[in-house]
Amino acid sequence: MKIPYENLTSRKKSKEEATLEAYDILEKGWSRRNYPFIDINNSIPWALSSQDERSWNFYIHSWDMIDILLYAYDKAPEDRIFKPALNIALDWIDQYVNIEANIPVNYENSTDFAWYDMAVGLRAYRLSYIYDAYTQNVEKDDLISKKLWSGILAHQAYLNLDSNITFHNNHGYYQAAGQIAMGRRFKETSPVMAFALEQGISRFKIMLNQQFTEDGVHREHSPDYHRMVYDTLIGVIKADLIKDEEILSFTYKIEEALSWFILPNQHIANFGDSDWRLMRIKSSAAERKWQTPMMKFVTTNGEAGTLGSNELKEFKEAGYFIVRNSNSVKDLGYDKYSYLAQTAAFHSRTHKHADDLSFIWYDRGYNILIDAGRYGYIGKAEMGTELWSQGYWYTHPSRLYCESTRAHNTLEFDGKDYMRKGVKPYGSATKRSKQYLNGLTVLETECKHNKSIRHARVLIYMPNQWLIVFDWFKDNLDDIHDVKQWFNFDPGLKLIKLEDAYYTKLDSNTELHVTSLLNGVQGSEVMRGVEKPRLQGWFSPAEREFIPSDSINFSQSKVNTSSFATLFSFNSICEKKLEDNFANTSGRKLYFTWVDDIGVHEFSLLREEDLEFKVKYTLK
Fold first, then answer.
1. pTM over 0.90
2. 246-293 pLDDT, tens per residue?
3. What's the helix, strand, coil split of the chain in %, to 5?
4. At what angle do helices 117-135 and 79-96 cross, to 10 degrees?
5. What is the DSSP letter of 530?
6. b/e map of 427-438 (b: 16 or more CB within 10 Å)?
7. Helices 223-238 and 191-211 sit at what angle, rounded to 10 degrees?
8. Fewer CB atoms near the end CB (10 Å): N or C, the chain?
9. Parallel, antiparallel or unpaired: strands 411-413 and 441-449
C-alpha cells in the first residue's frame, strides 16, 4: 500500500493490540461511551431517531466504528477486518451520495449529521483509505471502485465550498485535516485531489492561527478540546501531511500550554465543554507521546520530565490564570502540588458556559472546588425559543445545569445565567497578578455581566494554607439585585454547616473550614443532588454521567453594589473579627483579620487603578 492509514486520533496501539480490539468489535459490536452497542456486521442506524442521541449519531456518521478496523488492517491486512468497513462505506454512499453526479444528498432529511461539517472531515480520510486499499486488490470490482470514488468526489464537492467550512471553530480544523489526507493520497492521479490538497493546507494554516492564541491556548474555552485538537495536529504531522517548520515549532508551544491545564491528580481542567479526563500515562508512554518535559511531568506524576521554576502563569490573550505551587515537595510527585486555575475568557459562544471568572482548586492532595463538566450535547434548542435566546444550544436539563452560572464558582445575579447571546465577547478578563516569595499569590479579574453589572474578583491564595475569594460588584444602572456567591465541591467531600460557616474532613488529619470574612451575608444550606425547584449540587465527569456533589452559596438581597469575601482555611478558625474587617465601596481597599489554631492573620490589599498591588500579610 502506498500510503499508510492516517492516525489522526493519535492511537498508540501495537499491531497485536489493534487486531485484538478489531476482533472484539467484530464479535461484540461497537459502542461509544454510554450509548448502545452497534453490530457492525448488520445494518447501521444512520437515521437520527431522537434529539437525545445527537452526539451518538455524529460519531456514527463520522464512521468512528471503523476507525480501529482500518488502523488494525493497515498494520496486519485481513479481509475479515476490512470487509465490514467496506460494507459500511458502501451502505452509507448508497444513502447519502448521488453516484451519477458525485454530489452529497440527504434523503428524507433522516439526520442532521450525514453532511455535518466535522463528520465530513473525519469521514473523508477514512473513505479515501478504504478506496486505496480496495483498488489494490487484484479481485476488485470496478462498480464498487466507481461507487467509492464517487463518494470521495462528493466529499471534495462539499469541502470545496468555503461556505461549508467552519473556519471559526475546531470543526473546520478537522475538515481541513481530512481534506489534506484525502488530497495527498490521490494528488498524483487526480487534478481534483491535487487542488484539494493545496486548498486544505492553506485552510489548515489559517485556522491554526485563528483558533490558538499566540501563547498556544485554544480559544474555545475548553482544555479538553485543546487536547483533542492538539492530538489531531500531531497526527497530521506524524502522517507527513504537513511539513512546515513554523507549524512544527508552534506545536511545542501548544503542548506546553496544555501542561498548565493538567491538575496534580492528572485530570484535565474541565472548564467549558471538557470531561473530567484522566491524563495519567506511564513514563515510557509519556516519553513517546509528548514533546515537552512539562507535559511528561504532569501526566506521569513527576516520574518523567521536569517543570520550570515559574509557578504562576497568566495566559493574557486567552484569559486564564493558573497557579501550581510545589509546596517545597518537588521530589514527592506532582500530586503533592497545590493548584488553582481561573477562567476569565469569553471569545465566542463556542463551548462557552455561563462561568465568567469561575475557578477550580486542588490542594493537600485533594480536589476541592470543581467545575460541573459538560454532560453531553443532548436535545436541540430550536431557534427563537427562550433557551436559544439565552445562548443555549441544547435542552437536556442536566446539560442546562452544567452550563448554568450556579454550577460554577462565581457570582449569580437574580437566579439568572450570564448572557452569552446578544452581548459582545470581552476576550480576556485577566487584569493584574502578583506572586510573593512566601507563595502568596494575588489574582485580579474583571468583566461586565448582563450589560450593566461590573464585577471584579480577587483571588488571594496562600497555597497549602488558605484561600480568600473576594468579589465586588456594582450595577451601573443602580438596579437592585439578589446576589449569590456559589461554591461547588468535589463529590467526595461532605460539608457540615455550623451557623453560617462550614467544614469538611479531607482525611482523618485534615479539615477544610469555610466562612465569610464580611458582615451582611447569609450562608445557604448544603445542597447535594437537589432536583427541585431547580437542579443544584451535581457533577458530570463524563458524557451522560451526573453525580451528586455538595454546593453552597453566600447571599445578599436587594443590593446594587456590595462585596463578598469568603475564606477557605485548612486551619480551624477561632475568631473572625468581623468588626475589624472591611472592603471600601469601590472594592479597592481591603482589610481582613482572623484567628485560627496557628495564630492571628492580618491581610490588607490596596489595588489602585493602573498601579501595582500594595499587599501586607502577617501571621503572629
1. no
2. 888 899 999 999 999 999 999 999 999 999 999 999 999 999 899 999
3. 35, 25, 40
4. 130
5. B
6. bbbbbbbbbeee
7. 140
8. C
9. unpaired
